[in-house]
Amino acid sequence: MRFIITKHIIENIVSSMQPFLEKKDASSITSHIYLEVNNDKLIMKATDYEIGLESQIDELNESVNGKATVNGTNLLGILKRLKDLEIIVETENNNLIIKQNKSTFKLPMYDPEEYPALPKAQSDNKLDISMLNLINSIRKITPAIDNNNPKFELNGALVDVKNSKINFVATDTRRLAVSHLQNISNNTENQFIIPKKAIIEIQKLFLDDALISYDETNLVISNEKMTFFTKLINGKFPDYDRIIPKSLKYNFSLPKNMLIESIKLVTSLFSNIKITFNNDNIIFESLDEDSESKTQIDINLNIEKSFYLAVNAKYLLDFLSLTNNENIIIGFNESNLPFYLEDEKFFTIVMPIVLEK
């Protein structure tokens, strides 16, 4: 195998493949990137069996067909040090040789025939939505996906395809985030859970439209240049409909920027806050016992009695930072009960910090 390529072209691909490499065991073949030259095209793959990426590069200046593997971390380290000029990559005696001007690097290879195959796009189940809509929807719920929860299904986002809409759902047990799209393409009703790592990588990789397909085991997203796959989480997601309040006593619109400014003002030292809603103002207070932070918004709420919520301000700021409109909807039933935040096709339900009355 041999090819000549401009350094930054291959470096960008190798850099994007780093999250898909096995990092704990450098002796594993999955710590390597697979390279194959075929008819003036370079195909590159990286996978740790749970998640993977295949990319195709057409911009080869010269090529000889063949296959190779190389440690992905080491390859990126070399590429970063080279000038942004042409490099020569070739195989010789089970080594990958990289040359630029008078510099030469030699890295050991594994047998490329033993490199694991990546799942292909499925013909049975397709999710017919635009990538822009998918990314906007999953971006909003990403902060609510849990990390390292013993209940594996909470370490991912649920895609719940219903007859009339598609819900994207995440919960870390302290909040529930849901964004939704209309099911205008008559996608088949189904549910699957995408791991958090995959949710994050999808947002980085895809900007233009792509084909989205899945089966019981894998989700595959592909376009002309790239194929991404992730194993799905095998488990039953909690019945999130049960948590959504059927009615709310108080439901009003509040200016987003004013809320953000007030919350940030009182959380400079401590993240837990109490927000008290009165007829003609909203009071924000830090719950830090050792210091006092307090501010107030004068606003007419038209409520008969005062009530409050106590909460980790991060959950409020996560929601507010992902909203599109100048005003958001906030809904309550009573103090010390979960409360509801909404902006268009996105809402979050937050568990309060229970205070003694």
TrEMBL record:
Domain DNA polymerase III beta sliding clamp C-terminal: 242-345
Sequence ranges assigned to domain DNA polymerase III beta sliding clamp N-terminal in this UniProt record: 1-119
CDD domains on file: beta_clamp (cd00140)
Compartment(s) where it occurs, according to its Swiss-Prot or TrEMBL record: Cytoplasm
UniProt-recorded Gene Ontology molecular function terms: 3'-5' exonuclease activity; DNA binding; DNA-directed DNA polymerase activity
GO CC term, one of those recorded: cytoplasm
Keyword Hydrolase (UniProt): no
Keyword set, alphabetical order: Cytoplasm, DNA replication, DNA-binding, DNA-directed DNA polymerase, Nucleotidyltransferase, Transferase
Cited InterPro entries: DNA_clamp_sf (IPR046938), DNA_polIII_beta (IPR001001), DNA_polIII_beta_C (IPR022635), DNA_polIII_beta_cen (IPR022637), DNA_polIII_beta_N (IPR022634)
SUPFAM superfamilies xref list: DNA clamp
Positions in coiled-coil regions: none
GO term, biological process aspect, one: DNA strand elongation involved in DNA replication
Main location as per UniProt: cytoplasm
Domain DNA polymerase III beta sliding clamp central: 133-239
Protein task: Confers DNA tethering and processivity to DNA polymerases and other proteins. Acts as a clamp, forming a ring around DNA (a reaction catalyzed by the clamp-loading complex) which diffuses in an ATP-independent manner freely and bidirectionally along dsDNA. Initially characterized for its ability to contact the catalytic subunit of DNA polymerase III (Pol III), a complex, multichain enzyme responsible for most of the replicative synthesis in bacteria; Pol III exhibits 3'-5' exonuclease proofreading activity.
Family: Belongs to the beta sliding clamp family.
Subunit structure: Forms a ring-shaped head-to-tail homodimer around DNA.
Protein name: Beta sliding clamp
Gene: dnaN
